[in-house]
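Need tokens for this chain, all 140 residues.
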Amino acid sequence: MKQPFSKKKRQMGIVINFSSLILSIILYEIFKSTGFSGLILLSLATLLSACLWSFISVYARTGLWAKTHMKTSKLDEREILVHSNALRISYSIFVVITLLVVYAYALAEKRPIDVVIAGGLLYFAHVLPASIIGWTERDV
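Here are the structure tokens for all 140 residues:
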């Protein structure tokens, strides 16, 4: 259900969402070769909980997720313009970040990219348009 959420709170939730996602992927990648201790698993669970909480707070409750995944025939002219601009920016950011990740991973290791990184990039691709709208728009 759509609830009012101030721009500052949305921006903080977006930062928490991306930070917890990135930190959990980095933590997983660092410790997958050395083994997982109880503290590492607890840290991963905490980071993933923060990611889930911020997703629910910022994207689900505000309606950003539904709006960015809505058919354009259900949007008015202004919403179509905002939506297409967010998709354009998202595509540019996603391509650059994905290429940087692929190149960095290829230079650092001789293994293929892990499913955790691929899943993180897939999640990133889905929330990025909503994040751009949530970050820039005054009213959502």
